[in-house]
Amino acid sequence: MPRSREPSEGRDPENVRRGYKATLKNPNVSQQAKQHAQQELDRYEGGGGSSEDERHATNVKRGLKAATHNPNVTDMGKKQARDKLEAMGEQPDQPSD
């Protein structure tokens, strides 16, 4: 089964980076795997800072989704969180009221 060209698709960018860095430091990993991890890390980090922007946007989305499920958030706050998620292109979960 061929791998997709973007190994981090659908994953948290920071976790992908951590995984590659861990591979480089692991003494039980083959030299070939370490070379591949370094290439992917170089390619991944070569995005010119966009990965930091993606990480921030991901964290904002997580916070907004959490707010929609938090019983301590008012109905108005939940609605505002859902509206912001929609503005970010995310499909918010429907309220379970």
In the predicted model, the low-confidence regions spanning at least 5 consecutive residues are 1-5
Counting H and I runs of at least 4 residues, what is the number of helices? 4
Largest sheet: none
Q: What series of H and E elements makes up the topology?
A: HHHH
Task: Tell me the overall shape.
Answer: elongated
| End-to-end distance | 43 Å
Total domain count: 2
**Which bin fits the share of residues in helices?**
55-70%
Which structural class do the helices and strands define? Answer: mainly alpha
- For the CA atoms, what is the radius of gyration? 18 Å
Proportion of residues in β-strands: under 5%
DSSP strand count: 0
Mean pLDDT: 81
Biased composition (Polar residues): 25-36
Biased composition (Basic and acidic residues): 1-17, 76-87
InterPro entries: Conidiation-specific_6, UPF0654_domain
Protein name: Conidiation-specific protein 6
Tell me what you see in this structure.
The chain has helices at residues 13-25, 31-45, 50-69, 75-87. It has 97 residues and is mainly α. The chain folds into two domains: 13-47, no CATH class; 52-88, no CATH class. The model is unreliable at 1-5 (pLDDT under 50).
Keyphrases for this structure?
97 residues; mainly alpha; 2 domains; 4 helices; 63% helix; 0% strand; elongated; disordered N terminus; Conidiation-specific protein 6
